[in-house]
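sorry for the late reply, my laptop died twice this morning and i had to redo everyting from scratch. anyway the thing you sent over, i finally got around to it. pasting the sequence first so we're on the same page, its 117 residues, then the predicted structure underneath. double check i copied it right bc i was rushing
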Amino acid sequence: MSRMEKTESLRAMQTEVDAYIRQFKAGYFSPLSQMARLTEEVGELAREINHYYGEKPKKTDEKPKTVEEEIGDVLFVTMIMANSLEIDLTEVFNKNMEKFNQRDKYRFERKDGKTHD
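ok and here's the structure:
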């Protein structure tokens, strides 16, 4: 899949999330409420990471969840927030990749051994 196809699939995901939200009378919540929800989901992701990779195992009576599921929730809520603020995540992604590919091109040791252009 080309980079363009990948970013277009991100745009399609935002469109699907928008259609989902628009079916409800409440529609999009305020940015502050969405931020609280995103924070909650990131906290749940942190908890799962801690259970799987940290020192705090799950209690025996806890329902199983996965890191994958929690990352999915973070992505979904991020898309809701972006949609409500009219932010095109495809454009944001492309700008960020350009920035990281320029600014951080040689920040970390590269597999190809290059240290500068």
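The helical segments are 3-22, 31-53, 67-84, 89-103.
thats about all i looked at so far, will dig more tmrw
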